[in-house]
Amino acid sequence: MKMNHLIFLSTLMLMSASFLSYADNEISDKETGCKIWNSKSLVGYTISWAGQCKNGKADGTGSLQWFYNKRPEGRYDGDYVLGKMQGHGTYAMDDGSRYIGEFQNNLRSGRGAYLWADGTRYEGDYQNNMMDGKGTIYWVDGSYYVGEFQQDKKFGFGKLSLVLNNPYIKEFADSGKWIGNYYIVEGVFADDDLIASCPSEVACIKQLTQVMQVNGRINAKVKN
């Protein structure tokens, strides 16, 4: 569906552009010598760590400030374990976006909330820096999706609620219903696409099972 691809493409572009990714190298605070696992490129980057050190690495609760060519670029306030973000923390980007939640092995993993600079917001499960599990994403016009995600895409049962006058309502003309000022679309999604419209997860499973059974009988006839 065009709307879903456009929304998630813009979302993922913002995420990849604003959130630092990490490689298996270290960078040191020049004042204290305390080390953390560094970003992919060391060129032009420096850090300032205010917190405890263990075996020469950031460990415990503290604050990390990133600089690029001496200009502040990103800040993390939270837990570190042996130089990696581990536990709970807040990562604020210089564009105004921020993530508040759990980290594992330097990645967003667990429960968290991501707020983009334009006001888009996600609250829910993360795995390996991606929306994965159950969660809700809210768009700035008041529309929202609540349901299952996999690798930053809608995947599984969910409900998409589009506010009145949303231009993408026409994409779901035969798949939803009006409740107040919202056009509601419920069903099973796969890689952001709606593959079955149904009022509950149980109903969707039954519907998809019937479709697979019919397809199986058709394939059997073709082979014979």
TrEMBL record:
Signal recorded as keyword: yes
Keywords: Repeat, Signal
Pfam families, sorted: MORN
Domain of life of the organism encoding this protein: Bacteria
Signal sequence segment: 1-23
The name this protein goes by in its record: MORN repeat-containing protein
Species: Methylotenera versatilis (strain 301)
